[in-house]
């Protein structure tokens, strides 16, 4: 089919060049034989582009490569393996994990592979990583941990959908060990997400069956609900009250006590904290050298991570009543900068405790 697309002039020129090149090969034989005769083993094939056109795949055995007009490449048909580098992803239940994979593949159609993809190894690695991210992001942490064999097979099928268009076939996929970076946040019941009220007693319909007992259960649930609403409003009112003038000094004193050389070596980050709300202010924590430096104001250097939050949120994080991750998910904490270094704030908070 490829040869039929050539014009009559192309065929004449190609035949003329081939004749003289082959004649040159015969005249200079056996010296030319050392350069033009290639050996392909049973597990190898040779791809040849002659005058820019792909000719039928050669091998195994002895293959003649004409000088000057042939560009050739030897491909290995045996199964190969590569590592998909560990990638950080967020599961459907809010977990942040790091996971990689080992992919075994082989070349099924050397002709299609040569025409379809420029860098075979790079392409199949990127396709594998993309398929792994798309598949595992839809699963929970528990599913990934307990159903790895089934997920490995599903991943193999997804990768093969892309690989078969390049003349490749994936024979096996193995998911690597899972590293838990951040545990999932605690989720409140779906029927009352704002206040997290306990579910009503499962005693049936309020107006059938036990009658008064069921109605009493609903009344008790309503009482608990209104009490939690009142507590939430009271908490919001307390948060709105401006903190005392010594609040910032107390927080800085706590931070300075927790900072040490061991923490600096592990974190190695410059944090900038911008306090918003009724009592605004700024302070920084330079945890890069020595024993670390904590001070008021804006740091003179460009910070690795900048946090913006209220004073009440900062107090809750230091007290341990809320984690930085939950504060970020809930919109109470805003972050700008390196995500990996931002997650090290968890270590700083643990040392404060």
From TrEMBL:
Alphabetized UniProt keyword annotations: Membrane, Transmembrane, Transmembrane helix
SUPFAM superfamilies to which the protein is assigned, alphabetical: Band 7/SPFH domain (SSF117892), SCP-like (SSF55718)
Residue ranges constituting the Band domain according to the UniProt record: 35-186
UniProt xrefs under SMART domains: PHB
Transmembrane segments: 19-40
One GO term describing the cellular component: plasma membrane
Alphabetized Pfam families for the sequence: Band_7, SCP2
Record GO terms (molecular function): ion channel inhibitor activity
Function: Plays a role in the regulation of glomerular permeability, acting probably as a linker between the plasma membrane and the cytoskeleton.
Family the entry assigns: Belongs to the band 7/mec-2 family.
Protein name as it appears in the record: Podocin
GN (gene name): LOC100180817
């Amino acid at each position: 089919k490829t040869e039929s697309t050539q014009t009559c002039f192309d065929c004449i020129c190609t035949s003329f060049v081939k004749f003289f090149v082959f004649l040159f090969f015969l005249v200079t034989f056996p010296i030319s034989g050392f350069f033009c005769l290639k050996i392909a083993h049973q597990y190898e094939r040779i791809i040849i582009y002659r005058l820019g056109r792909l000719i039928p795949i050669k091998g195994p055995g002895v293959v003649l490569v004409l000088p000057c007009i042939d560009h050739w490449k030897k491909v290995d048909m045996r199964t190969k393996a590569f590592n998909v580098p560990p990638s950080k992803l967020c599961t459907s239940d809010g977990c942040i994990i790091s996971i990689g994979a080992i992919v075994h593949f082989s070349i099924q159609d050397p002709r299609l592979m040569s025409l379809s993809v420029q860098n075979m190894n790079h392409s199949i690695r990127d396709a594998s990583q993309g398929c792994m991210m798309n598949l595992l992001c839809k699963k929970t942490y528990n599913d990934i941990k307990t159903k790895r064999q089934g997920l490995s097979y599903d991943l193999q099928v997804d990768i093969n959908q892309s690989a078969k268009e390049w003349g490749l076939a994936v024979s096996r996929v193995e998911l690597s060990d899972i590293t838990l970076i951040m545990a999932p946040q605690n989720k409140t019941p779906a029927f009352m997400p704002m206040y997290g009220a306990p579910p009503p007693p499962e005693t049936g319909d309020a107006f059938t069956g036990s009658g008064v007992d069921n109605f009493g259960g609903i009344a008790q649930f309503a009482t608990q609900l209104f009490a939690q609403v009142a507590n939430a409003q009271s908490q919001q009112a307390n948060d709105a009250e401006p903190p005392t003038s010594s609040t910032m000094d107390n927080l800085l004193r706590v931070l300075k006590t927790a900072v040490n050389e061991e923490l600096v070596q592990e974190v190695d980050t410059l944090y900038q904290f911008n306090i918003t709300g009724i009592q605004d202010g700024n302070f920084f924590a330079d945890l890069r050298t020595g024993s670390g430096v904590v001070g008021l104001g804006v740091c003179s250097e460009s910070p690795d991570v900048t946090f913006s939050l209220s004073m009440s949120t900062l107090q809750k994080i230091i007290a341990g009543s809320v984690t930085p991750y939950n504060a970020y998910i809930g919109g109470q904490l805003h972050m700008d900068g390196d995500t990996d270094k931002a997650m090290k704030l968890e270590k700083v908070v643990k040392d404060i405790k």
